[in-house]
Specification:
Protein-Tyrosine Phosphatase, Chain A; 2 domains; single chain; six-stranded mixed beta sheet; globular; 41% helix; 7 helices
Length: 182
């Protein structure tokens, strides 16, 4: 069936039809299938990817987080105190969106890259330690030294790539390498 053949036109109706179709297909699936699917699922590379646990500090690679929504999701997902490595690209000016989750979950912020002014301006009133770093190795080392056993060092940049990295894959590989080199 094509979108043009739907009785009601427009994206909203197309999405409604898709949701109804999926809902009906799910009803047809057996519980055992769901159990198998969900127990066999493996995480996507660079999306909340566990890298290592060093002296009780978990290092998590979320370099795929190229938007503030992605960073919010990553921060909200963590249940341990977070040393947040942010930046590494052009920083979005709408960081106010993250203020509540940062206040609630983050114990320190590591800024990666040359454009850190916006991060400082957005979170300085929270009185968190904020460190500036210019390489991934510096950022990971700073997170390690600011962290304690039971903390999470979360690399979730919340911005697109720029001159530092070509894409999120390169950024994530650099993070993994820096953690392994600690």
């Amino acid at each position: 069936m094509t979108l043009e053949s739907l009785a009601l036109q427009g994206n909203a109706y197309a999405y409604d039809n898709l949701a109804a179709t999926v809902k009906n297909r799910i009803r047809e699936a057996r519980k055992a299938c769901f159990r198998e699917w969900f127990s066999d699922f493996s995480n996507t590379e660079h999306r909340l990817e566990f890298v290592s646990n060093i002296h009780g500090i978990e290092f998590i690679n979320d370099s795929m987080s190229v938007s503030l929504n992605g960073a919010w999701f990553a921060l909200e997902t963590m249940s341990k105190p977070i040393i947040w490595i942010a930046g590494g690209g052009s920083t979005n000016k709408e960081l106010e969106f993250l203020k509540n989750v940062v206040k609630k979950k983050v114990k320190a912020i590591i800024c990666l890259g040359p454009d850190n002014e916006t991060i400082h301006e957005s979170f300085s009133d929270l009185e968190l330690p904020i460190a500036d770093t210019y390489t991934m190795a510096e950022a990971v080392e700073a997170a390690y030294y600011l962290g304690h056993k039971g903390d999470v060092a979360l690399f979730s940049p919340g911005c697109k790539e720029d001159a530092i990295f070509m894409n999120h894959e390169e950024r994530g590989i650099a993070f993994r390498k820096a953690v392994k080199d600690l």
